[in-house]
């Protein structure tokens, strides 16, 4: 792709607006549906972020993902940039799916498994995106750090709300 056909600043702004809309939409869904009542009844560890902090982190991370996607699409790595861009979009789909499984299904065990699978996928995607564009992969590291925290938190929530045999003797 020559320089005149690469995504420009307008596309970046569109990506960032869509990312902000998705973050706000899902935060609103979780906090205004019966998922909010379900989470209020869960036993959670003392180190669980509360209030607006998770929403702000979500908005920031989605913005970094949008910028990473844009940088990847501007890469000069030929067809490899399409693979990297698809992996980044897969991360976004995984985030949506993880939210739907955890809060839509109201199941802490399934939420932990979804978080763990997303963490593994993000690790793989981070390695591939890094081969396409180092700056794009650097922007995904805060996402990976947040997903690491989410896996630890969801495991602890699952352990504290031992409602099935999945966590057994933990």
Would you give an account of this structure?
- With 170 residues, the protein is an all-alpha fold.
- Helix content is 76%, strand content 0%.
- It contains six helices and no strands.
- Helix 3 packs antiparallel against helix 4 (80-104) and helix 3 (53-73) packs antiparallel against helix 6.
- The radius of gyration is 17 Å and the shape is elongated.
- The mean pLDDT is 90.
Sequence-ordered SSE layout with sheet pairings:
Elements: H1 9-32, H2 34-40, H3 53-73, H4 80-104, H5 108-132, H6 134-160
Helix pairs in contact: 1-2, 1-3, 3-4, 3-6, 4-5, 5-6
Brief summary of the model shown:
This protein is an all-alpha fold and 170 residues long.
Features of the shown structure:
mainly alpha, about 0% strand
List the secondary-structure elements in sequence, H or E.
Answer: HHHHHH
**Number of helical segments with 4 or more residues:** 6
Radius of gyration: 17 Å
Distance between the termini: 53 Å
Low-confidence stretches: none
Shape: elongated
Mean pLDDT, nearest integer? 90
Main sheet specs: none
């Amino acid at each position: 792709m020559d320089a005149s056909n690469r995504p420009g600043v307008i596309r970046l702004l569109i990506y960032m607006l869509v990312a902000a809309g998705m973050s706000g939409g899902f935060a609103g869904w979780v906090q205004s549906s019966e998922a909010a009542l379900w989470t209020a009844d869960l036993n959670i560890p003392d180190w669980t972020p509360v209030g607006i902090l998770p929403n702000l982190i979500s908005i920031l991370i989605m913005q970094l993902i949008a910028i990473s996607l844009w940088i990847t699409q501007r890469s000069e790595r030929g067809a490899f940039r399409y693979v990297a861009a698809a992996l980044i979009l897969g991360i976004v789909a995984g985030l949506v799916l993880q939210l739907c499984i955890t809060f839509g299904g109201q199941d802490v065990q399934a939420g932990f498994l979804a978080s763990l699978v997303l963490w593994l996928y993000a690790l793989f995607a981070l390695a591939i995106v890094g081969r396409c564009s180092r700056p794009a992969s650097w922007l995904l590291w805060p996402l990976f750090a947040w997903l690491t925290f989410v896996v630890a938190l969801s495991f602890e929530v699952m352990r504290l709300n031992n409602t099935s045999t999945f966590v057994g003797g933990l």
